[in-house]
## 1
Amino acid sequence: MDPKHQRMALNDGHFIPVLGLGTYAPEEVPKSKAEEATKIAIDAGYRHIDAAYLYQNEVEVGLAIRSKIADGTVKREDIFYTSKLWSTFHRPEMVRSNLEKSLKNLQLDYVDLYIIHFPVSMKPGEEIFPTDENGKVMLDMVDLCATWEAMEKCKDEGLAKSIGVSNFNRRQLEMILNKPGLKYKPVCNQVECHPYLNQRKLLEFCKSKDIVLVAYSALGSHRDPKWVDQSAPVLLEDPVICDLAKKHKRTPAQIALRYQLQRGVVVLAKSFTEKRIKENMQVFQFQLSSEDMNVLDGLNRNLRYADAEFAAGHPNYPFSDEY
């Protein structure tokens, strides 16, 4: 990690800011909130914005980025923007079209990072979650190595500066890394990661392959009832985290974010509240001791908030493996 610039080198020579703003919100949240939050975040010093075709708010996020470029706050090259290939576009001939849709929504010429959002493919079509007459999600079988080759072409064509994956397990990462004729390694694997699911083994594996681990749901989860078991414990109410917050005169969220940074993880903080967006940026102003880190490591209970149960029967379902 390069502390001066608060960024980390990727294996293709580009750099990723170690703290990013997450922009996912449940459907009932107005899309305009993502625009507001992105503007607030850029003004507060965030340079890494994480979004996705799936979130259906790239028009608003793009508007925010362009307005901050127009008013002179940032230049385009100051912003690190991530988008994601959705599961209905895994067929190699469709990969570029999904990226082009995102770029059109954003009104940008390129994304800094384009990642395969989830390894399970779904039936192509207009629906984000295509379902059959019984309401069951319709899955598809696509060779992810072929998808990856189409991702490589997007990088070659300058539509994405870097390419990576999300929600891949070790076996799936190895499948890409061992692919005959591999041109570019994934620069990152973006996965759910927080003190209750610290991903220690996957992190060690990624580091050994020079792949950056990016943590989503780092503050626990948005607790959207569509995805998350409502009886799951609330991470930021954990007494251990709250005690550390008191000790350091920080918020529980700052403790959870700092934990990731000190492990060499790039961390995404999702908030649409101005106060919290600004507070989360203060994560660079303090340090946890090795004793604090050990205490936080001890909270791991392999609790996954987002288990994507709808895809559990698919051969590429990533969460059945240990890591």
## 2
Amino acid sequence: MAAFDIKTLPNNLNGQVALVVLSKQSLVTDASHGIGRAIANKLAELGANVVVNYNGSAAAAAEVVAAIKALGNGAQAVAIQADVSSVADADRLVAETVKAFGRLDVLVNNAGVFRVAPTDQLPLDDYHHLVGANIHGVYYTTRAAIPVIADGGAIINISAIASKVTFPNMPNAAYMATKGFIEAFTRGVAAELSPRKIRVNTVSPGVTYSDMLQGASEQALEHVKQTTPLGRIGTPEDIAEAVAFLAVARSGAWFTGQNLLSTGGIGFSLS
């Protein structure tokens, strides 16, 4: 039996279509900011046509679309409004993606509500927001994408290292639980879609510069740096590179059902 030749797989995303999703309830309200924006830009740099999901600022989303088109590599982009915690909106988002570009190859579920409070003090409205964004948004969009995503494609779900480790003075059990769902869901869908050679993986960022760090004290940020093995806080571009690694067929060829910890070394013994 001849060995599989990985060099036959593409090392870019030319001709592919990527949908980058973020939900309404996130502190970062759309894919035009932070990690979502970095992911959209990186996939476009690799040649993908990108659908930028937003539910907040249409103007900010338009900026991302313009920046992608200005790359000059032929990548195109459109912005589509949708609140993916709604089944109807998630279905419409996927349908409009296929209508715009004729296919779907890469789905990135970049949901990210974050709340800090002891379990008995977390308002139930905040708990419902966590579940809506971090669980329902990922489930509904993946559910809508499965029938149309191309065989050999990729689904990448964004979790967080907080599902595995706790941080001092940061009680967030409900948030941890929702991210744990994402990781278990990833493994289940990876098994379901393996006959179609669709790779389904998770990226778990460590502490990363984004809107979620707004209000953090310099003392807290310095503590993170000192306790991170690689000695710095992550950037949105760090996370985008991890997503791109899994999205590209050649680099991500032997990964499915996995959780890639992009954390600067936090939690490396847990991977």
## 3
Amino acid sequence: MRVTATGRRLIDPKGGSFWFDAGAVCLDFAHTGGEGQYAVFESLHEPADLAAWLATPPLSVVVTVPVSARELTAAKTLRQAIWVAAHARASGEALPQDVVATINRAAAGAPLQPSLALDGTTALWASPVRATQALSSLAREMIDLLSGPLASRIRECASDNCPLVFVDSSRPGARRWCAMERCGNRHKLRALRARRA
């Protein structure tokens, strides 16, 4: 997958937003909503929402075939599998077999195919571009992440009540927070208050 940068602005349903860089597009995708208690963060309500998310940089996949309700369901299934797999890896636990099967099934489909534009300097995605191809590419990226050198760097935010997961690609491997402007600053504030008390 040709991606030069990662990260998205996450919206808190209680108000506010912050920039969160998960370090991999597949992990950015895992943070688009969820099941159970995370349903309040859902951003993929209808097929057009998935198309809009895919079209946003860094992925910049403009689908040429409209996203179907079935593809939206498949996207949410893959998203949940990526979420569970990332948390399992961050906790040092074995990945559930059904999660592995879901990721493998999505990856087995045809991925996005890069294509050189007529100007000879610009890369595009070869048409037709379908959502299932983007999902396959996201699943393949997750496979590479889980089986590659950064697998041991998948972490959950160190804050007590923040479930966000990310790849710590910093040179020293010392990233602890989802974002300094959010959980990192909250931790510093609590530590300062504790010292003053």
